[in-house]
Amino acid sequence: MKLGIVLVLFILLVIVASVFCGHDSRCSGSSENSSFVLVDPPEIFSIVNATNLAFTAEFFSGNVLPPYSSRLPAYGVAQLQLRSSPGSSGDVVYRSRSIYGVLVAEVSFTLYTTEFFGKGEIRNIRASGPVVVTKITANELSIS
What we know:
Blueprint: H1 2-21, E1 43-49, E2 55-60, E3 64-65, E4 71-72, E5 77-82, E6 89-97, E7 103-113, E8 120-128, E9 133-137, E10 140-143
Parallel strand pairs: 1-10
Antiparallel strand pairs: 1-5, 2-4, 2-6, 3-5, 6-7, 7-8, 9-10
C-alpha cells in the first residue's frame, strides 16, 4: 500500500515537472529561452506637491516604468515606479507653465536603486522658479 502511494506521488511529480519545465529546459531559470522568469517588484517613489502650481512631467528616461504619472496636480501626489534591478535609474523632469505657456517652475531628479530588494533613492534634485524641493525620505520628495 505504501509503495503504491509513493509510486503515485512520484508519477504526479514527474507530470508537474514536465508541465512547468517543458522538455528543453532544466528549470534552472538561467536559460535564455526559459519562459519561467522571476520578476522583482518595482521600487515606488512619491512626489508630493504642496504648492498651488500644477506640474506636468515633460521628460522621462531610463528605467522608469509605465504608467507614467504625467500630471502632478496642485496639492496632489504622484507615484513613479522604477525597475528594481541593481543600478537602475531614471531621470524625470516636471514643469509648471502659465496659461500662456511660459515656464513658471521646473523640478528635476533622478530615481535610483542601489541593491536588490533594497529601497530606492532620489538623487540629483534640482529646482527653479518659486519652489523649494525637500527630500522627505529616501524615496519621497516634497515640492513647496
